[in-house]
Amino acid sequence: EAGVAQSPRYKIIEKRQSVAFWCNPISGHATLYWYQQILGQGPKLLIQFQNNGVVDDSQLPKDRFSAERLKGVDSTLKIQPAKLEDSAVYLCASSPRTALQETQYFGPGTRLLVL
Amino acid sequence: GENVEQHPSTLSVQEGDSAVIKCTYSDSASNYFPWYKQELGKRPQLIIDIRSNVGEKKDQRIAVTLNKTAKHFSLHITETQPEDSAVYFCAARQAGTALIFGKGTTLSVSS
Question: Which of A16, A39, A69, B18 has the CA that lies 20 to 30 A from B65?
Fold first, then answer.
């Protein structure tokens, strides 16, 4: 089966600019996650969707980050305006979220550098 | 909320030796504990996972043990090979929530 797709793979912007990332989860996966992975650290959840509804966005910096999952399939994550500390890899993951299938499958990530 | 501590942060072994990475978690409601391997510049890949109703699980050279009473779980890699070199992350979650990851262990296997 096809994996989680993300684009772009790399992005370089200047601080205060805006940027958007796109994720296409594995077909049929109801749950979609966006994680931020700063160099040398483990992934940290930004937002979790179940179908097109938000389950957890408690760690999303809502003054600058926004995300949506229209139609319960693809998702976009936006940063506006970007700060230097937003430099990180943004990972999208999806899972079937049935009782027996909890595995999260990660996409290749988008590497963001804010100058 | 859940907090996951992972040790050691770096681990160097000789090819053929065993490697052990340990994690502790804080939330007794957590019931799913996966381990991910991440090679440089690549996505995290699930290598093994364990649920709270199981104490040990093995898959070829990789095993995971879980002690619910002490709230810790460990990854064991036997007969290490150079291709095992990577960053390993443990994680924990309870039903309906996202994974909480440890900070990672950089494993280096020298031949």
Answer: A39
